[in-house]
Amino acid sequence: MYDFQQAMRFIRQNGSPVEQARLDVLIGNLCPVEAVRQFSVAQRGDGGWAPFWAGDYSSLDATCFHLAQAQQLAIQVNEPLFENGLRFLAERQRHDGAWEEDFSVADQAPPWAKPGELATRLYLTANCAFWLAASPGFQDAALQGARYLSAYLEENGKLPSFLQALWLCGGLWGRLEMVVEAEHVLAYLAGRITELSASQLAWMVTALRIAELPAEDALIQSAIPSLVSSQREDGRWTSDDGPVFDVHTTLETLYALKLCGIIHLIN
Quick check: 266 pLDDT over 70? Predict the structure, then answer.
């Protein structure tokens, strides 16, 4: 059992205005207009968002990250902010269906965003295609990305990429009814549950539930106990990226649990 009240206190004491707004939406309140305005201001003219590692560059990875937050702010996929973000992703797709950050930022990009690496290309392709699949207007681009990824799926359900790419692929393939591919990658993930951190578990559960994998699915059900038990005494779930992201991970965890129907503890 987890302590929602303690988690909420941690977020209220440490969260930014946008993070506070994400909590408001989570518990059923209206999203504050000012928080949405602050969130929107950061979106660049081309529809993308700048990453922390390159302030004057629109990043694929940063844009996917912000689209996930937009969803938690109750911004709909047909609203201009979301549509512009998706259009940015679609316009950056390569002819072969993949996505990769621009080589002009190769020296600045962190390992998960560095262009020229297969593992990074597969992760970014999975992330971009996952979000494009959420909108009827971008299904062709999502399908092209999904097919590109399927060419790298190994017999045991593994991809030569980061684990994050696997659950994004699982959600993407499931959403596009590529059933065989989805089953293979989810079976592989089921054998890795005990190795995943709170951040990874929350992201995996959220992605799979957004893609409408049933909350009763064995993979999701096996992840929940580990996720719940990793809460700290002060209410937080810790981030793999350091304490500055603990509020974000705590919100992601609560959102994952809500998507799984564990809402009686949140009301």
Answer: no
Decide if pLDDT at 267 tops 70. Answer: no
What DSSP line would sit under the chain, residue for residue?
---HHHHHHHHHHH--HHHHHHHHHHTTPPPPHHHHHHHHHTS-TTS-B--TT-TTS-BHHHHHHHHHHHHHTT--TTSHHHHHHHHHHHHT--TTS-----GGGTTT--GGG-TT-HHHHHHHHHHHHHHHTTSGGGHHHHHHHHHHHHTT--TTS--SS-HHHHHHHHHHHHHTT-HHHHHHHHHHHHTTGGG--HHHHHHHHHHHHHTT--TTSHHHHHHHHHHHHT--TTS----TT-GGGHHHHHHHHHHHHHHTT--TTT-
Give residue-wise pLDDT tens across range 142-194. Answer: 999 999 999 999 999 999 999 999 999 999 999 999 999 999 999 999 999 99
pTM of the model: 0.95
Residues 6+ apart with CB under 8 A from 2: 228, 231, 257, 265
* Residue 113: alpha-carbon gap to chain centroid: 15
Q: List pLDDT tens digits, range 240-250.
A: 999 999 999 99
